[in-house]
C-alpha cells in the first residue's frame, strides 16, 4: 500500500468526518483519533448505503422500462442508459467501501499523533470560520446554492478553503489535494466543479489580501 503523509491522511479524515463530528472547537480539540476514524467510516458507510439504494432504484427503473418497451428503440436505449448508470453507481459504492477499509491501515503506516493533530486543526478551523468560508464558497459556485451541493463536494470545498485562507497552505497545493480527493469521493463532474470553484475562491482571497495590504 502506498505510504501516505500524515497531513494527507488527516485531510482525508477531516473531509469524511466533518458531518459526523459536530460540536464546538473546544470539544473538537479533545477528540481522540479513534473517534475521528469512527466518524469517517460512518460517513462513508452512509454514502455507500445511499449510493447502493440509488443504483437499485435506477436498475429497477431500467428493468421496468425494458419490460414495457414493446421493442421501441428509444425506450430500449433509455433503459440501457438507466442500467449503465446503475452499474456506475454500484462501482462508486464499491470504491467507497474499499476506501473505508483502507483508512485504518493508512493510520498504522503514518505518524498517528501528527494525523490526530492535523485532523483536529482542520476541523476546528472550519468550525471557527464557517460563516466566512461559506460566504466565499457561495460567491464562487456559479448558479448553485451551497445547500444544494452534494454533501461530499460541500465538505471538500470547506476543507480546501480553510486550508487556503487560514492554514497557510499554498493555493495550488490546496486545490490539487482537493481535486485528488474529489476524484476518490465525488465524480468527474464533481472534481471539475470543485476545481473551478476553488480557483474562483482563490481570486477572492487575492483581492482580500490586496485590500488589507493597501
Structural summary, described in words:
It is built from 9 helices and no strands. The protein is mainly alpha-helical and 214 residues long. The chain has 2 domains: 1-111; 129-214, N-utilizing Substance Protein B Homolog, Chain A (Orthogonal Bundle), CATH 1.10.940. It is globular. The N and C termini lie far apart (49 Å).
Order of helices and strands: HHHHHHHHH
| Count of discrete domains | 2
| General form | globular
Overall pLDDT score: 80
Our count of helices gives 9
The tally of strands reads 0
- Contiguous low-pLDDT stretches (5 residues minimum) are none
Instruction: Give me the Rg, rounded.
Output: 20 Å
Largest sheet: none
The chain-level structural class is: mainly alpha
Relative strand content: under 5%
N/C terminus separation: 49 Å
Q: Give the helix proportion (percent range).
A: over 70%
Amino acid at each position: 500500500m502506498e505510504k501516505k503523509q500524515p497531513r494527507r491522511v488527516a485531510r482525508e479524515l477531516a473531509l469524511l468526518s466533518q458531518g459526523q463530528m459536530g460540536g464546538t472547537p473546544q470539544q473538537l480539540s479533545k477528540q481522540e483519533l479513534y473517534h475521528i476514524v469512527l466518524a469517517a467510516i460512518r460517513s462513508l458507510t452512509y454514502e455507500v448505503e445511499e449510493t447502493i439504494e440509488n443504483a437499485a432504484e435506477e436498475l429497477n427503473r431500467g428493468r421496468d422500462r425494458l419490460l414495457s418497451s414493446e421493442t421501441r428503440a428509444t425506450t430500449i436505449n433509455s433503459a440501457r442508459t438507466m442500467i449503465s448508470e446503475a452499474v456506475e453507481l454500484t462501482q462508486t459504492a464499491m470504491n467507497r467501501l474499499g476506501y473505508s477499509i483502507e483508512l485504518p491501515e493508512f493510520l498504522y503506516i503514518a505518524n498517528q499523533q501528527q494525523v490526530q493533530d492535523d485532523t483536529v486543526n482542520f476541523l476546528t478551523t472550519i468550525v471557527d470560520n464557517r460563516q466566512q468560508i461559506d460566504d466565499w464558497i457561495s460567491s464562487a459556485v456559479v448558479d448553485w446554492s451551497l445547500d444544494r451541493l452534494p454533501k461530499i463536494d460541500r465538505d471538500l470545498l470547506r476543507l480546501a478553503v480553510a486550508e487556503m485562507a487560514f492554514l497557510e497552505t499554498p493555493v495550488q497545493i490546496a486545490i490539487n489535494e482537493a481535486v485528488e480527493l474529489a476524484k476518490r469521493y465525488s465524480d468527474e463532474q464533481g472534481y471539475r466543479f470543485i476545481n473551478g470553484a476553488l480557483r474562483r475562491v482563490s481570486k477572492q482571497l487575492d483581492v482580500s489580501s490586496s485590500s488589507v495590504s493597501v
